[in-house]
């Protein structure tokens, strides 16, 4: 009797299994089951395929896929496929599509003195090589021994960065925010355009911001030369095809006509006719009691370079030279009543604001224009040598402007003091005869 009951029970279980009311097992063989090892919302990831269905990898976190969660593209329509979030039919990603990391070391670059890998989306990923005491250059460890991580400060990408003694970018020293960076320091100029102009620098095209500072490389010219802010077809075959005066020193220009490297530092001497020459004998002005460099440096410089040049000048056994103030510079004017010392022009050491400027008194000496001065057309003493042009004073005006004197017309005016604005010449002065 028991055997008969057991047989009936086995028969019933077999019928239920055949009808699908019971399954033999569940788990690994159930293809319609769970997501296996895929990460849930909020868990870390490196790409979208690491995440569960309807999740995306954003900022290395699995997050809800807005396109799949809104219900418009799910279900029978089959607009989206699989767990990787690709758009069906191979359509190109729309604007704003999150870049997926497919290569954790697409390129190698120097960062903080070591070799680091950047992924295919351009993001810093991991350190590839520790350079130790060596420097890093061109994405490789080099033989130069780093002994100073901040041997110099320079402007890079609008901020102040430290460069090590091997000349490599090391770390950001100061964030300039909305100000510009000039001469390795944050300045007051507001950067509103990171590529206001394009110029050639180190053989490539670089962008300069509206404050005149080098910002970023715009184009790599490779073996071509860079001319006029563009890569040209000229092949550089000679890095010193000619020598010219630039910023008071002798510089080499390549065969494509571009500035290449400094050939000779003239120091306290002047650069003239493409070579360093003696700065000459000083000239004493008995009318003012001042001694002047004569002839002056024979090149245009910006204001800061003019200040540095005079401070570093060692001439005639004296090292106490300086850039003259506007009153001192005006003491050299001859033959123009409005701008000579004591003339109607109100710009002096005691009045340097723009309100002190009167166009009628401070502008050109006469209606005939230029070149009517007593010294071969120049409005200065007969003994003066040098270019009859504009000369810097040390006196700031309003905003970023500085006063100057244009001796070809005896004009007193103001010009920008920003780095790179090489509008004027420099003539140094000292007190003693």
What does this structure look like?
- By secondary structure, the protein is mainly beta.
- 9% of the residues lie in helices and 31% in strands.
- It has five helices and 28 strands.
- Strands 3-4-5 form a three-stranded antiparallel beta sheet, with no helix packed on it. A three-stranded antiparallel beta sheet has the order 8-9-10, with no helix packed on it.
- Residues 18-34 and 67-95 have low confidence and may be disordered.
Helix content: under 10%
Strand residue percentage: 25-35%
Radius of gyration: 36 Å
**Alpha carbon gap, first and last residue:** 140 Å
Key structural traits:
single chain, three-stranded antiparallel beta sheet, 28 strands, mainly beta, 433 residues
Which secondary structure elements does this structure contain, and how are they paired or packed?
Layout: H1 2-18, E1 55-58, E2 61-64, H2 66-69, E3 107-111, E4 114-118, E5 124-129, E6 134-137, E7 140-145, E8 152-156, E9 159-163, E10 169-174, E11 179-182, E12 185-190, E13 197-201, E14 204-208, E15 214-219, E16 224-227, E17 230-235, E18 242-246, E19 249-253, E20 259-264, E21 270-272, E22 275-277, E23 283-285, E24 290-292, H3 303-312, H4 326-330, H5 359-362, E25 390-396, E26 401-406, E27 411-416, E28 429-430
Antiparallel strand pairs: 1-2, 3-4, 4-5, 6-7, 8-9, 9-10, 11-12, 13-14, 14-15, 16-17, 18-19, 19-20, 21-22, 23-24, 24-28, 25-26, 26-27
Describe the structure concisely for a colleague:
The protein has 433 residues and is mostly beta strands.
């Amino acid at each position: 009797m028991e055997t008969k009951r057991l047989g009936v029970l086995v028969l019933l279980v077999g019928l239920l299994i055949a009808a699908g009311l019971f399954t033999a097992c569940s788990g690994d063989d159930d293809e319609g089951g769970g997501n296996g090892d895929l990460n849930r919302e909020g868990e870390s990831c490196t790409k979208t395929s690491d995440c569960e269905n309807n999740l995306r990898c954003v900022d290395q976190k699995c997050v809800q896929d807005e396109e799949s969660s809104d219900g418009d593209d799910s279900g029978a329509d089959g607009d989206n496929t699989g767990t990787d979030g690709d758009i069906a039919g191979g359509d190109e990603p729309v604007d704003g599509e999150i870049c997926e990391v497919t290569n954790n070391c697409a390129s190698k670059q120097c960062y903080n003195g070591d070799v680091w890998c950047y992924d295919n989306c351009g993001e810093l990923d991991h350190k590839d090589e520790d350079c130790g005491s060596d420097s890093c250059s061109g994405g490789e460890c080099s033989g130069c021994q780093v002994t100073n991580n901040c041997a110099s400060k320079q402007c890079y990408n609008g901020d102040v960065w430290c460069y090590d003694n091997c000349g490599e970018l090391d770390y950001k020293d100061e964030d300039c925010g909305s100000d510009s960076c000039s001469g390795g320091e944050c300045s007051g100029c507001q950067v509103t355009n990171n590529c206001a102009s394009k110029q050639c620098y180190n053989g490539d095209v670089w962008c300069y911001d509206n404050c005149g500072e080098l910002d970023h490389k715009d184009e790599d010219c490779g073996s071509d030369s860079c001319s006029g802010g563009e890569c040209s077809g000229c092949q550089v075959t000679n890095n010193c095809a000619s020598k010219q005066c630039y910023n008071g020193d002798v510089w080499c220009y390549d065969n494509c006509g571009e500035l290449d490297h400094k050939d000779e530092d003239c120091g306290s001497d002047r650069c003239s006719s493409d070579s360093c020459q003696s700065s000459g004998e000083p000239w004493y002005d008995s009318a003012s009691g001042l001694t002047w460099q004569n002839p002056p440096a024979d090149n245009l410089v910006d204001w800061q370079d003019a200040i540095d040049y005079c401070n570093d000048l060692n001439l005639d056994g004296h090292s106490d030279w300086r850039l003259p103030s506007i009153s001192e510079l005006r003491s050299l004017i001859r033959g123009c009543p409005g701008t000579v010392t004591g003339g109607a022009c109100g710009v002096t050491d005691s009045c340097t604001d723009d309100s002190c400027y009167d166009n009628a008194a401070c502008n050109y000496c006469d209606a005939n224009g230029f070149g009517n001065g007593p010294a071969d057309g120049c409005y200065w003493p007969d003994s003066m040598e040098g270019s009859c042009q504009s000369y810097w004073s040390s006196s700031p005006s309003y905003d970023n402007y500085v006063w100057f004197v244009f001796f070809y017309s005896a004009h007193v005016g103001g010009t920008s003091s920003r780095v790179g604005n090489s509008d004027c010449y420099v003539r140094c002065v000292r007190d003693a005869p």
